């Protein structure tokens, strides 16, 4: 973990070819299976606002929205979102977004996957520490989830 409070960084080695990891990351249906969101019929293309219903137990009443920022096939996938936007009574649209960047790198026996979420210091002070804590543990879970998904699909 990076020592900065502005960013969360995780890296994992997945025992699969980069093309397979890329599909799990950028195909909305596959992404939804490991990320815990049912994406609603949209492709992950630059400029797209992708939406989906959270499927993680206890959060099914929430919608996830990500604005696709960059897509460099089998190398980089990034989006912006409102992190930890879990209170349906709060309008998060006025807050700054954070940037989530996945980078893939071919490696012996598989693929290195790095995720960095940055811009957390721009989140309002009242939520900043909660966002950092929730997403720090959340990225631990998600890296494990994509590893398991790729191994079994």
Tell me what you see in this structure:
The protein has three helices and seven strands. It is α+β, with helices and mostly antiparallel strands and 153 residues long. It has one domain (7-152): Alpha-D-Glucose-1,6-Bisphosphate, Chain A, domain 4 (2-Layer Sandwich), CATH 3.30.530. It has a seven-stranded antiparallel beta sheet. The radius of gyration is 15 Å and the shape is globular.
Oligomerization state of this entry? single chain
Number of strands: 7
Estimated helix fraction: 25-40%
Radius of gyration: 15 Å
Distance between the termini: 28 Å
What is the topology, as strand order, of the major beta sheet? 1-7-6-5-4-3-2
Continuous helix count? 3
Tally of individual domains: 1
Average predicted local confidence, pLDDT: 94
Unreliable sequence segments: none
Share in β-strands: 25-35%
Overall CATH architecture? 2-Layer Sandwich
- From the spread of the alpha carbons, the general shape counts as globular
Would you list the SSEs in sequence order as H and E?
Answer: EHHEEEEEEH
> Can you tell me the CATH superfamily?
START domain
Q: CATH class, please? A: Alpha Beta
Class derived from helix and strand content: alpha+beta
CATH fold naming: Alpha-D-Glucose-1,6-Bisphosphate, Chain A, domain 4
């Amino acid at each position: 973990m990076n020592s900065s409070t502005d960013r969360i960084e995780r890296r994992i080695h997945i025992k699969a070819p980069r093309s397979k990891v890329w599909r799990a990351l950028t195909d909305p249906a596959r992404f939804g299976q490991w990320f815990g969101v049912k994406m609603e019929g949209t492709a992950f293309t630059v400029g797209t606002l992708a939406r989906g219903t959270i499927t993680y137990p206890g959060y099914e009443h929430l919608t996830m929205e990500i604005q696709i920022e960059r897509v460099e096939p089998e190398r980089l996938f990034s989006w912006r979102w409102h992190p930890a936007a879990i209170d349906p009574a709060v309008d998060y649209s006025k807050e700054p977004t954070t940037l989530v960047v996945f980078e893939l790198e071919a490696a012996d026996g598989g693929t290195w996957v790095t995720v960095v979420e940055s811009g957390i210091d721009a989140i309002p002070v009242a939520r900043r520490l909660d966002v950092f804590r929730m997403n720090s543990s959340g990225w631990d879970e998600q890296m494990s989830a994509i590893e398991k998904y790729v191994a079994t699909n």
